[in-house]
Design a protein that fits this description.
Elements lengths: L15 E3 L11 E11 L8 E7 L2 E8 L4 E7 L3 E7 L6 E6 L14 E8 L15 E6 L4 E4 L1 H59 L3 H157 L4 H118 L5 H4 L3 E9 L2 E10 L2 E10 L4 E5 L2 E3 L1 H10 L1
Parallel strand pairs: 2-8, 7-9
Antiparallel strand pairs: 1-8, 2-5, 3-4, 3-6, 6-7, 9-10, 11-12, 12-13, 13-14, 14-15
Helix pairs in contact: 2-3
């Protein structure tokens, strides 16, 4: 869908600064500036313009620009210039060019600078204070070793110029309304003149027909005169009231501008104060962080010592527990051996008693059978009894001997365990002391190494940041130059599209310079906009509006509204 703008729409300055890659160079200590001055107006007729050149605020030269608008100026190095572009009835615009360069670049040859400036009509009552400042700044960049424009400043001015566009649009609408009112007044005057002629003809006929109607005609004319006078009085009163309202509106706008300047100054001071507070806060946080890291390191060291102490105590407790369990097992074994010896002694006593019982029974049996053999049997019984008693005595002595041996062995083992425990405790304390000393030495070495590593890391990080910044800026500027040059080549043949294409929207696609280009031409009255979507063979995708790089979002947004 085509978007139609009003007839006399004012297009704000589109400043395109392109650093041309050219074979032409200047002599040393000179910078060549070339460009073209054009005018944006309804008629499209060529105008004569004037360029005033200032150096550090002092006027030094005036250059008349013919209808072609082309100009060429050589600037000295290490100067600060202001170009002022003006023409009667048009808004004056400025461009700042600072040719100051470092000493090691003073004898270098520089690439010529080219830019185009477009001026638009000035309307009474429109606030154009934004154009009292330069619309673009060109200065030397060490990373490029050449001159280029200040992108950040151009972006900031774009916002202010957009605001001026809105005011110019409102002034333009007011201008259209005034033209309509003027045309309506002229039409009313024509109708009134026609009516006056008709009335005169009618009055002439009435005079011829009736003389008596003269008095009534004169009375009607007098009434009409009074009515016209009253209308004139009302019209003058309305004009005076409109003038007062206009003056009040201008005073209000002036007051708003002063208030905005005051607020901007206040915001600047607040921003400086915030930056100062932020720096102090960062310094405080850095000191707190260093203190915290030191405290954490102390806590870790104390925790390590405490952990070593707890581990040593745990090992000692474990050793004591193992020794206690071994002692308990030994006591259990001793008790078991004593129980076994008691059982053996009981069994020996039982056998002895059984032997005595058997001997007694055998003796009685022998006595009943053979009285003669009583003595022999008694002797045998006594002998068996003595053997049993001796056997039991020997077993009791053996049991006592074994019991004494067990007790002596247990006492010896307890002495050895106590000596071993004392030796292990002494070794543990010595090891703990040595570990503490080594831990303290390691901690000090680690702290020193950490400090040195942090210092070295900060140095490397700062160096890396500076190198990355320089490299990124150089790559960005180089890439922008390449893109501008490539897009310029692809778009040079379309500068006369207004003559070759119809009004509305035209979309074309073609391949050129290793790129697939989608070109959208939008023509509405005197406005021509060319959108390029450039898809490189190596995968990169870029978007342009009138050869100026724009984002994909802005590209899609503007084309969707067309």
């Amino acid at each position: 869908m085509n978007t139609k703008f009003p007839k006399y729409i004012i297009i704000v300055l589109s400043l395109i600064i392109v650093i041309l890659t050219s074979n032409s160079v200047f002599s040393q200590n000179l910078l060549e500036v070339k460009g073209q001055l054009s005018f944006k107006e309804k008629s499209g007729s060529a105008k004569n313009g004037e360029i005033k050149l200032y150096e550090k605020g002092n006027f030094i030269q005036s250059i008349d620009v013919d209808r072609s608008g082309k100009f060429k100026i050589d600037l000295d190095i290490n100067k600060d210039y202001i170009f002022e572009f003006s023409s009667e009835g048009f808004v004056t615009k400025k461009i700042s060019i600072n040719t100051e360069v470092p000493e090691n670049f003073e004898n270098k040859t520089f690439t010529p600078i080219y830019f185009a400036v477009e001026l638009f009509n000035q309307y009474k009552g429109v606030n154009t204070l934004v154009f009292t400042q330069p619309v673009g700044i060109i200065k030397f960049y060490r990373q490029l070793g050449d001159f280029d424009y200040d992108v950040d400043y151009s972006s900031e001015m774009r916002t202010k110029i957009d605001k001026a566009e809105k005011e110019l649009e409102e002034a333009h609408q007011k201008h259209l309304q005034e033209i309509k009112q003027k045309e309506l007044a002229e039409r009313q005057q024509e109708i009134a003149a026609q009516k006056a002629d008709e009335e005169a003809e009618r009055q002439r006929k009435l005079e011829e027909e009736k003389a008596a109607s003269e008095a009534r005609r004169k009375a009607a004319e007098q009434a009409k005169i009074q009515e016209d006078l009253e209308k004139e009085r009302i019209r003058k009163q309305q004009e005076e009231e409109a003038k007062q309202r206009y003056e009040q509106e201008q005073a209000r706008k002036q007051a708003e501008l002063i208030e905005k300047q005051r607020i901007a100054e206040q915001q600047r001071k607040e921003a400086e104060e915030k930056a100062k507070l932020k720096a102090e806060e960062e310094a405080r946080q850095k000191a707190a962080l260093e203190a915290k890291m030191k405290a954490e390191e102390e806590a870790r060291r104390a925790a390590a010592e405490e952990a070593a102490r707890i581990e040593a105590e745990r090992k000692a407790q474990l050793l004591a527990q193992q020794q206690e369990e071994a002692k308990k097992r030994q006591q259990e074994e001793d008790a078991k051996r004593l129980a076994e010896l008691s059982e053996k002694q009981r069994m020996a006593e039982l056998q002895r008693m059984e032997a005595e019982e058997r001997a007694k029974k055998e003796a009685e049996e022998i006595a009943r059978k053979k009285e003669g053999e009583l003595a022999r049997q008694k002797a045998e019984a006594d002998s068996l009894k003595q053997v049993a008693e001796e056997k039991a005595k020997r077993e009791a002595e053996e049991y006592q001997r074994q019991l004494d041996a067990v007790k002596a062995e247990s006492e010896q083992r307890q002495k050895e365990e106590a000596a071993q425990k004392a030796l292990e405790e002494e070794q543990r304390l010595a090891k703990l002391s040595e570990e503490k000393r080594l831990s303290e030495e390691r901690r000090k070495e680690e702290e020193a190494a950490k400090v040195q590593a942090e210092i070295k890391q900060q140095e490397l990080l700062q160096k890396d940041i500076e190198e990355r910044k320089a490299k990124a800026l150089a790559e960005k500027l180089n890439k922008q130059n390449q893109l501008y040059n490539t897009a310029q080549k692809a778009a040079e043949e379309f500068t006369e599209v207004k003559k070759d294409y119809p009004k509305g929207k035209t979309v074309e696609e073609f391949d050129r310079f290793g790129m697939h280009i989608t070109r959208t031409i939008v023509i509405d009255n005197e406005v021509v906009r060319i959108y390029l979507k450039v898809n490189h063979e190596w995968g990169a995708l870029f978007f342009f509006k009138n050869n100026q790089s724009i984002s994909e979002e802005l590209y899609n947004s503007e084309l969707e509204r067309i």
